[in-house]
Amino acid sequence: MEHVxxxxxxxxxxxxxxxxxxxxxxxxxxxxxxxxxxxxxxAVERNSTLISYQYAFETLFGKDLAxxxxxxxxxxxxxTA
Length: 81
Prior knowledge:
By secondary structure, the chain is an all-alpha fold. It has helices at about 10-30, 40-60. It has a domain at about 40-70. It contains 2 helices and no strands.
């Protein structure tokens, strides 16, 4: 019976390539994260997330968080109405 190594032969280069790709993505993300602004639907998404969070909390723990979504100031989206 032949001994099977935990490390597969020839697995060094694919792992190195994956590690370099991850490092490249992290570097690009690190230097471009300030370019992203507030999206148009961020206020809507925030309110729906708070409602979902409140529902999950009530379902799991049986307690009301009393998150009044209308007490938060609306996020300015840059549109004029």
